[in-house]
Model the fold of this input.
Amino acid sequence: MHLRILPIFFVLIIAACTSEKQSATKTGFVQIDAEISGINFSNDIVENDTLNYFDFPYLYLGAGVSAGDINNDGLPDLYFTGNLVPNKLYLNKGGLQFEDITESTGISGDDRWYSGTTMVDINHDGYLDIYLSVSGKFGNTANQLFINNGNNTFTESAESYGIADTGASIQSTFFDYDNDGLLDLFVANYPNVMVSMGNRYYKEKMDENKFEDSGHLYKNQGNGKFVDVTVEAGVQNFGLTLGLVATDFNNDGHVDLYLSNDFNVPDYLYQNNGDGTFKEISEKATRHTSMFGMGIDAADFNNDGYTDLLQVDMTPADYKRSKTNMASMNPESFYEAVDFGFNYQYMQNSLQLNNGPNRDGDPIFSDIARFAGMATTDWSWGALFADFDNDGNKDVFVTNGVKRDVNNNDVNAAYDKATFFGRESNPDFNLMPSTPISNFAFQNKGDFSFSNVTEAWGLDQKGFSNGFTYTDLDGDGDLDLVINNMDGQATIAINQTQKTDNHFLRIKLKGERHNPFALGAKVVVKSGETQQLQELTLSRGYQSSVEPILHFGLGSEKTVNKIEVIWPNGKLQTIENITADRSIEIPYDDSSPLASKTKVDNPLYFEDITESSKIDFLHKEDIYNDFAFEPLLPHKNSQLGPALTVGDINGDGLEDFFVGNAEGSTAAMYLQKDNGEFEKLSGPWEKDLDIEDTGALLFDADGDSDLDLYVVSGGNNKLRTKVFYQDRLYVNTADGFKKAEKALPEITSSGLKVISADYDNDGDLDLFVGGRIVPGQYPFPAKSYILRNEGGKDQFIRYVNVTDEIAPELMEAGLVTSALWDDFDQDGKIDLILTGEWMPIRFFKNLGHRFKEVTQDLGFGKSQGWWYSLQKMDVDADGDMDYLAGNLGLNYKYRASEKAPFEVYANDFDENGSMDIVLSYEKYGTKLPLRGRECSSQQVPAIKQRFKTFESFANADLKDIYGEKMLDLSLHYAAQNFAHQWIENRGDGTYAMHNLPNRAQFSSINSIQEIDYNGDEYPDAVVAGNLYQSEVETPRNDSSVGMVLIGGPNGLELVAPHESGLIVTGDVRNMALIKLANNNLNGLLFAINNDSLKLKKVN
Done:
């Protein structure tokens, strides 16, 4: 295979440029002054009475920068766009010296408002051309195409090529959407409409769907002309697009498009159908997105072969800035947007991990920004993935800063009170603060988490940064940064990673004739145990483009074992054994074979057989607004179903199942038939449709060798009487199921969990029933029950409440979510383990005549969390029982540790006769309220009177706001751990808690089911969950798609969804293993809140 080794240009950094802070770290950047580099571009914005935010709210969107070798001398050159200043082209002369050749090249532009810039060889002559997107308030908005003449001059030719788009364009991207070998063009537009107008305004715009308000797709006809195919291709949609990327998200060989939209308008993910058309699948592919979607980037940051997505928003990480600059989210507006089809949108960055495609070929994403530590980076414009430290993991850089704090709550309140009639027609824009902030740099730690290294890498200078790019300006083998700043000179930050022991490889592709830079090609680099994937697409980040060279960090590896190039036409080219620390050029080889397409399905595991099994159950939630009575609840407590339980109810050797429903909808019992299909069985539960079914158990209550049904009543409706929460027992008789009206004692708790065991060894099954909630009184502990079986057959069975007698601690056990009967001390008597929200994992030892709590003795006294599930299994196959415990997870807005717990206080803080809730966390040693001034005042109106401004509230701590005495007198819980655990039984009466793998921590785990996945001696498990009921300012826990964990001698390892084939979306509340009639297979039932029940085949 012929490779061309490209020269690398090394330069010495002037010692005076390196600060002591930067030289002390392995990776760091030094900034080169304009006097040295010759780059003095500054995107200056001059505000006045006729050009300001109120006159033109898009004034601060900024501009971009492109990197590329425009004269083919091996050095990357730089092109900057300006809004009110001329564009600039700087020729790289080597040695970090640049020459401004703008005037001689004829590429400065005119008086248009230039925004995005991208480079492409559109006429395939081997020279990079430049395409410019144009926006602005006035004047000519036609985009421009500058054709490179090959002699450092350019000719504007957009009109002749047919791509002088006149929309308000932000950025554009070139890609081959129809795989005909020709580069097509998509132009992303942001029409000059009114801002912050509410859902209905944007819905009307979307329904109106004017052509000029949409992005536009242009097809390359191969004759130097493009034709608009927006309508035919199915991509005409009203958008407020600030971010755009073209890449193949589902690995089907066709390039897709993702559009990041501002304000209420949902994002668009245009999946390429492969026939010249697209389908919009954003709501199918993502569980939620960023609300004020800014710039985006796409790359495989975790090296699993699937392209992920990073989208930035505008929420500050700083507590005081967040409380002064962020408005509270209106719940009615939020859910109206959801009803309009805008998806769930939250004001935070999104790091969308690609789980691989589902069986329909749609990529399924999970937002893990909170786990990654990149959810809040202030008013961010752009983000790029790149391996800045050459360790083989792609890091992230984010640009930040808006020239004026247009969301400052106190200033906006002053504007609103300016006159008797409200806001003046032309407010004084100078009242809005101007607060420079630093950009962010995040180092990829290789475990789905990132470390904020902004200061450590010397990138913490404050300003207003917009578009940026990365490139190796000095040819030393690491990636430098070039940033287009507003009202400040461009930043040239030179990377010092070449001083470390990490290695690299840079790859330039020489493609086919009509696509000489091979845009759309994928390159896989295999070195050591690492495999990296990159796809060549140039328009990335924000209004900017990267150079057409792929940079791979290799860590300590000095040799690349294999390079695989998948060319845009699908051919696979392989090169082996390449020495590191060089730049190579790989020319296209037409004799290469076609690559085999990535398989979408995994035929071995977890095929969905719901429809073929004739199961058609839909859980349908009733309408109840928990927040109307408890405005500061962390989440709803009224949507905890459906209940699910499995068993052979008719003795035919086939397992059946019962699934509960919400108030107003009917529960169902499904009988399994010999052919594997299921049919519904009518029963008395159908008459109880006005009760909420949150827990269920099939068990033999009366010892007659058939299974009876216990159903737990739950919910959070404080207006209901105690009767509404009475549990039910349906006994299985010769005449069918009958409701045993007198079998149970009075139960007034809203419950969730019921489990059976013969705790008193008298030969019948007793019950533990966990109290989940006191309706309308969160977080006060609910009453749990031990019900002793007193005997009797059928409708004469009787249970008595012996809780106060044998386990009085359970009278106020807490907010119980899960429980197990297990003889944990192996003394022959069944013991009780339970847990819940704000609870530790509690152990109760059976002494024969009563239960004694031994939680502290076993070392679980500081295990308080938001636990949702327990499962016992011998994980390490050492002969004793271990436990799996599902918690809230580590990808939520709330964080907890022993040093900085997450806390709740409940008291009548304003002494108005109703109980109030205060959620609190600790930051830098100070206790702070979770919610802001506006939300807190809804519950305690006196707060708004005591703290007249948002700034005064932001400067107060928890004690200042609520009073130390009232806090001391409050009901108080503190969570110290939100991580999922497996609890190792050491076999000597002690236990060790171990975190589950990081990928299992991305959402709450509500259910755990033991399975045999790989046929070895170790048990395996499937975990599933999510928490969809969060209050609207907290992004819902929705990143779980189900997960397979395989047991082993050292614990549990995770199987990625694209390997296991398991993808289950939705708020999974319960899960159960069921034996199927066909070939003795097993199935997994997934009971999903407010969704259809699913049945998947296990093996």
